[in-house]
Amino acid sequence: MASPSLSTEELQDIYTFALGLGRDAGKILLDGVEKRSGAEHGRDMGKQEEKMNAVDIVTQTDLDVEAFVKNEITKKYPSHKFIGEETYSAGQSKEYLVDDSPTWIVDPLDGTVNYTHLFPMFCVSIAFCLGGTPVVGVIYAPVLDTTYSALAGHGAYQDDAHASKPRKKLPLINGPKAVLGPQAPKGCIFGCEWGKDRRDVEGGNMMRKIGSFINMAAEIGGRGGKGGMVHGVRSLGRSAFSYPLFLFSQFAAIISAALFTSISSTKYETILTQAILTFTDSFPLEVQQWI
């Protein structure tokens, strides 16, 4: 069966719709922030439940935003499929459903722990896939009022179609390609996330990550030759926001699940692949030796 195809105009309409949808969903997140940060006598912390453990949680806001986004997509594109993180995690389906059909993939609140602590680094993440490949990506951080987006073949942007902010093409560098030098990752910033697997076992995910952090931070020649001497290690508590920073060449690499996160990571592939070759004709850094 042949994969469905959409015209350039249809894809542009989907991209424009996704931009607006991300910002509308962000308003719901901000409403939740207002409720959580109100006066003590009127503060509404909302529903909160654990999934895998105490650092893997879901709030009522996650569920509300996902329901809103799904409803808006269904109204405009009733034939499209939808995969939402929260309904997927809840067990409504444990199959990987991305096939050749037009499919939306949504994380309604990336950075739920940050949101519960009113730490502003959280966002809504929306992707549209066609033929099994992401072709539209939108990440909106409502507290920062910043959007990162891309349409395959048309580049990646910060604050595209924003009401009051200028559109900036990603990556935010001037001049020719800024290929990382032979001493990389020395002098770079290293992005990482702790993840939800906190088992204290030798060779486990948490211990491997800690080893990666130390390797990257250690002096050149240290750690048995694995020392990277990076300028710093940053953990923002949300994977989606780390990807656009990668495009700014603010992060030399992103470590997730103790491994270098591939640019084919579904929700962010579109944004990354539209700008990654601006830095280099291949991966800017072979990270495997530091993990």
From TrEMBL:
The chain crosses the membrane at residues 241-260. It comes from the Eukaryota. InterPro entries: Inositol_monoP_metal-BS, Inositol_monophosphatase-like. GO terms for molecular function: inositol monophosphate 1-phosphatase activity; metal ion binding. Its cofactor is Mg(2+). It holds the Pfam family Inositol_P. Gene3D superfamilies: Fructose-1,6-Bisphosphatase, subunit A, domain 1. The keyword Electron transport does not apply. Keywords: Magnesium, Membrane, Metal-binding, Transmembrane, Transmembrane helix. Mg(2+) binds at E85, D107, L109, D110. One of its GO terms (biological process) is signal transduction. Belongs to the inositol monophosphatase superfamily. This is Inositol-1-monophosphatase.
